[in-house]
Amino acid sequence: MTIEKQEKESVLMLFVLYATFVKRDVAILEKNYNVDLYQFNTSKKIYLFYAFIKQFFFLLFNLHKYKAIVIQSSGYLSFLPVIFGKLVKKPIIIIAIGTDCAKLPEINYGAHTKKLLSWFTNFSFKNTSLILPVHKSLEKSFYNYLDVKFPNQGIRSFNKTIKTPIVEMVNGYDTNKWQNKNLNRVKNSFLSVTFAIDEIGHYRKGIDLIVKAAELFPEYYFTIVGKVYLKADCPKNLHLIDNVKQEELLEIYNKHQYYFQLSMFEGFPNALCEAMLCGCIPIGSNVAGIPDIIGNNGYILKQKSNDLLKALIENLPNNKLTPSDVRTQITDNFPLKRRENEFLGHLKNF
């Protein structure tokens, strides 16, 4: 171990899945800190009690090593850390990613659709030191993309007396990695990169809308990358590609003209921003952070409707936006450096 590494303070990162967005935040923290990783495994509910016991003893013997704990999402994994943090006055930061701020029983989505998980989520938010939602809509927003039983969404909608500081910290993207390569794009081509392996995912990710659009526009070219579940037969002009490496995904982005992000709920979708950096003109749903990501450089589907999407696509021949326009929307507003500065700034303040 080098002297430089020994002199750095340490931070603990907690997560359920070691996803790409977690790896990105680890890389940011490693610029100033030693970062230890802790995975809270709840892949099966029968392991939950064991996961709590294991985490309890880890925190008991190791918490003193860390300047702060950063937790990716509120829920079961954050319960014990916020209690320990309160007891020993250790800063605990929760990054709110979306599911922990939502209640949509219509699609069985969101921590607050489950009574026990909702309690753990609210307890953690209420007792942590700082909450960093990836978009301001996750603090409080009104949902009108679809008629739902609980249109008021966000942390404050489910925890009305919360006093914990809540500060937006949007995602940031590597503008050098995701490039517009100025390739010839397939005319009237539409792409979506997603993960939807069951019927709930089929609707939540807007796969149903994409399938219908492919049926309505048989002369157009549609692609979905990722593991997806289809309720009906796949139209001939809808091409399904399994998960690919990021180098291949870069090429796929650059071959398509438009990008679909038609999710029924999504805090701050990474694939949308990557696609825009690669020059895909976005078509997104009117939920959470998607309208702010797209800004005036793309198209918003105001409500979930096959007819509205059909009308939007029919109007695309009048499109004046260029790949350069949509790339600039991300480079100007959501560069990786912005998240890096904000994230390290928050930790420095403790």
UniProtKB/TrEMBL annotation:
List the keywords (alphabetical): Glycosyltransferase, Membrane, Transferase, Transmembrane, Transmembrane helix
Q: What is the lineage of its organism?
A: Bacteria, Pseudomonadati, Bacteroidota, Flavobacteriia, Flavobacteriales
Membrane spanning residue stretches: 46-63
* Descriptive protein name: Glycosyltransferase family 4 protein
Q: Which Pfam families match?
A: Glycos_transf_1 (PF00534)
Family matches, as SUPFAM superfamilies? UDP-Glycosyltransferase/glycogen phosphorylase
Write down the PANTHER family for this protein, in alphabetical order: GLYCOSYLTRANSFERASE, GLYCOSYLTRANSFERASE EPSF-RELATED
- The Enzyme Commission number assigned here is 2.4.-.-
Residues forming the Glycosyl transferase family domain are 203-323
Recorded GO molecular functions are:
glycosyltransferase activity
Q: Give the matching InterPro entries.
A: Glyco_trans_1 (IPR001296)
